[in-house]
UniProtKB/TrEMBL annotation, chain A:
Lineage: superkingdom: Bacteria
Domain named ABC transmembrane type-1: residues: 68-280
Protein name stated in the entry: Multiple sugar transport system permease protein
Family: Belongs to the binding-protein-dependent transport system permease family.
Entry keyword Transcription: no
Spans through the membrane: 12-33, 68-93, 102-122, 128-148, 155-180, 200-222, 262-281
Record PANTHER family: ABC TRANSPORTER PERMEASE PROTEIN, INNER MEMBRANE ABC TRANSPORTER PERMEASE PROTEIN YCJO
Main localisation: membrane
GO cellular component terms, semicolon-separated: plasma membrane
Keywords: Cell membrane, Membrane, Sugar transport, Transmembrane, Transmembrane helix, Transport
Bilayer topology: Multi-pass membrane protein
From TrEMBL, chain B:
Recorded GO MF terms: ABC-type transporter activity; ATP binding; ATP hydrolysis activity
Keyword Repeat attributed: no
Gene3D superfamilies membership: 2.40.50.100, Nucleic acid-binding proteins, P-loop containing nucleotide triphosphate hydrolases
Protein name: Multiple sugar transport system ATP-binding protein
Pfam families, per the entry: ABC_tran, TOBE_2
UniProt-listed InterPro entries: AAA+_ATPase, ABC_transporter-like_ATP-bd, ABC_transporter-like_CS, ABC_transpr_MalK-like, ABC_transpr_MalK/UgpC-like, Mo/tungstate-bd_C_term_dom, NA-bd_OB-fold, P-loop_NTPase
GO biological process entries: carbohydrate transport
ABC transporter domain location: 4-238
Top-rank taxon, per record: Bacteria
Membership in a protein family: Belongs to the ABC transporter superfamily.
GO cellular component: ATP-binding cassette (ABC) transporter complex, substrate-binding subunit-containing
Keywords associated with the record: ATP-binding, Nucleotide-binding, Sugar transport, Transport
Amino acid sequence: MERRDRRFGWMLSAPGLLLLGAVVLFPIVWAGLTSFFDYTLLMPGYDSFVGIGNYRMAAGQGEFLHSAWITLLFVVAVVAIQFVIGMVVALALNDARRGKSVYYLILLCPLLINPVVVGLMWRMILHPTLGIVNWLLGTVGIAPVNWLGAPDMAFWTVVLVDIWHQVSFMVVLLLAGLSALPTEPYEAARCDGATAFQRFWHITLPLMRPVIIVTLLIRMIFAIKTYDIIYIMTRGGPGVATDLISYFIYRRAFVSLDLGQACAMAVMLLVVIAGMTAMLWRAMRQVGE
Amino acid sequence: MASIELRSVSRIFGAGAQAIRAVDRIDLRVEDGEFMIFLGPSGCGKSTTLRMIAGLEPVSEGELLIDGVRVNDIDPAERDLAIVFQNYALYPHMSVRKNMAFGLKLRGMAEAEIGSRIARVAETLGVEALLDRRPAQLSGGQRQRVALGRALVREPRAFLLDEPLSNLDAKLRSVMRTELIKLHRTLGTTMIHVTHDQVEAMTMGTRICIMRGGEIVQVGRPQDVYREPVDTFVAGFLATPPMNLLPARLDVADGALRLRIEGQEIALPLASRPGWARHAGRDVILGLRPEDLHEAPVGAATAALDCTIETVEALGPETILTLRLGRDGTELAARLPPEGDWRIGAALRLHADTSKLHLFDPETTRSIPGN
Ligand SMILES: Nc1ncnc2c1ncn2[C@@H]1O[C@H](COP(=O)(O)OP(=O)(O)OP(=O)(O)O)[C@@H](O)[C@H]1O
Ligand SMILES: [Mg+2]
């Protein structure tokens, strides 16, 4: 009986599994294999095995390390700021008595927009001469800002756009966590003499810890592989100011045509993300307990 | 130390047509150092009243005063009251020790003092071995003792205890009862104690406040409430088994009050209860405590009632009989000494102590004063 159930289960999932195998598993295996060869798109072929040569070269390459560093900065900035904003908004919404669903709807709007559209939209809004933001600044006498043209500014502009796009994800997850918290400890704390901040610090934060960890990890995993916004808004520029790792790998493969090295870098990225996913999985199991 | 005063206090849940008056215009003054018991059936508003005093529930109408100061809008943190919640409300992420220490730490007490207080209270409550556990690792009764401990380590102006012993076994409960009484005697702090337990109600408090449907029915010293219930509700609620309530008809003849109860008659001198004469010729409810029924006549003031035994509960020090008046009349209970050979279905003549009778008006359910 149980065996037949299991066979039936496999049968049902077979088409999906085959498809996933073709579009996910196969490219991963293929990239892993390619990363050990000197494989360029000019001379495709598996005749020059280089072992871990591609990895060593990537690790010693200033541009690659720069991209990794920029990505780390980006992830920390985006996730930290989103977390703070998300927490504040979630706390406020959790106290809201009416209109919660309206706020929800408004908040979810950015999340529903395709990243490419987000990038195009913001590129227009922030256009140095034609954009509405600089025009608005002009009306109050502030000189136009070169949002995407100046290296330091471009990085923070991309960070801001990503925050605008993704912050509601934080809000929604944290709000779900907050509304699931028991109310009794708060009453006890009020009678014990705790102020609103002390209640947040001693009750909310510890009780929310598992939810916070999961939320942060999910956002970090997604932030590490940010690609679309960069492609649309800056192409990694100006210079290499916003050259996030995914975009860097893309260029290495399809501009420099050095597929072997790009694959090695992709595998390294994959290992980092897989490690974080494992942590996420462990954290999620703790939430369930 | 604090006196607590409620002036026409109400708590209304919801609004419009669905509004529920969980507490309805309550007037009560709990004196400084008093041990007040809230007693009443489930849903009568005991917890709601307590939570209003604590500041966790807004006062919809009326005034709440602590030490003569209006506190309707004062934050619970500033009221400095310690509460034991009916559902414990422990901090789930803190050990037992930290649960108890939390309120003290917030007040900036020194670690050493916190430690010694916790040790003392933990010993009293028998939870020393549990200090490093989390609430989830405790049994219901252990959690309840921790909740009690969290209140006791504080030195608040008043303790608000919402059924703090309800989940303990009989032995532990009686130990804790004694501890609380002792504690009240040594600290002299005002206490309000909500309970369902008759023994707690009768033995612990200086006064009992009996509630029903969001209203206070009677407030008084335990013996007084027991001896002189103001209506059939209090008579039927206090003590187990409660006062027997029998439908009767009252007449006055030849200087005597005559109560006719389903064909039987109890007579007593009019002079002993002149006030009852005003209800002559009317239906009344006769109240008779189970312990005021005896197997043999007691002195001159007794009247016989013929009954049939329905059940026999031998409790050890005493036996509770459930009987029917006559052969199959109204049910009543009698509390008799343990020795005795009672058979179910047998007839039994009981003797009521007529000096202990109560009368109630069936229309208003209020007690009819004897003088
Ligand atoms: N948040 C609320 N919303 C609506 N009604 C409520 C709320 N809290 C309590 N009530 C109602 O108020 C009434 C009094 O409740 P309360 O908890 O004070 O009863 P209680 O006397 O403590 O009962 P118990 O002995 O069962 O604990 C009940 O009828 C209850 O249904
Ligand atoms: Mg209650």
